Amino acid sequence: MGILLDGSALAKKIRANIKIETENYIEKYHIKPHLAVILVGADPASETYVRFKEKACNQVGMKSTVINKPSDITEDDLLKAIYELNNDPLVHGILLQLPIPNHINLERVINAIDPKKDVDGFANENVAKLSKNQDTLVPCTPLGITRLLDEYNIKTEGEHCVIIGRSQIVGKPMAQLMLQRNSTVTICHSKSKNLKELTQQADILIAAVGKAHMVDETYIKKDAVVIDVGVSRVEGIIYGDVNFDKVVDKASYITPMPGGTGPMTIACLLENTLKCYLDLVGKEND
Ligand SMILES: NC(=O)c1ccc[n+]([C@@H]2O[C@H](COP(=O)([O-])OP(=O)(O)OC[C@H]3O[C@@H](n4cnc5c(N)ncnc54)[C@H](OP(=O)(O)O)[C@@H]3O)[C@@H](O)[C@H]2O)c1
Fold first, then answer.
1. Most buried among 22, 101, 185, 199, by the most CB within 10 A?
2. Ligand 1 center from residue 38 Cα (angstroms)
């Protein structure tokens, strides 16, 4: 049976360390790290995610502000809200909760966020830096997965990592991070032919699709490391992309769902907020 990659336990450990660091920095700089989250509209799933993020910030002693905007907000007004946060020296991280309504140009608003405050690592400047292996703000979910791999000493160098999904949020930055770790990387997507033939070659398989229980034991080779990113809601029940029960005996390591990549994403959001804070406040005050 595969060993569980316990994201909840590691996230707890990371949060405890961040709490201590945060307390020390507040004592040193007399300024609280502050994450501002913009929530457009009232999508229940987004509201839940925002609540989790707010709670996580408060638990480690950071300040968190949620800025609610109506779903019919104009792009100009949303940009204005972002500029205000960019110019506020007491805001260190800015997160625009996705998805946002279709009438707003996502690229434009994401790139309006000051790259130094871009805790999600989605702005062009940060994406470019990641692709050039430069120090930057890395998207939280892929970053959390690398933390899990490190925690369990999972070898990545020379290993074949197959990623299902090519989004800007998960698949592509994940591929960059695995390349940095000297894995051989294959990225699959909805147009990939013979998907199973590709995934069966994976030493490390990362599923970031959003299709409930798509990956079963026929997708993986024996002793593969299996990471489940997907979250799908079907008739009120939440599923990962991986059919855990069918895969667990064949995998060497596997993330549970829930308790795998989700808590790591939040822990890495806190890490990124602290990174922004140190870059902004630390540099100014040291
Ligand atoms: N655990 C966490 O903390 C966390 C964080 C972020 C996201 N998520 C979840 O992770 C999943 C992926 O998120 P995302 O933002 O990357 O989603 P996304 O933007 O919808 O991307 C999904 C990717 O899966 C590919 N795909 C769709 N159907 C496929 C199929 N049948 N075979 C192979 N590839 C297929 C798509 O291909 P095309 O590019 O060709 O369309 C796309 O690249 C979602 O369920 C999301 O809720 C979880």
1. 199
2. 23
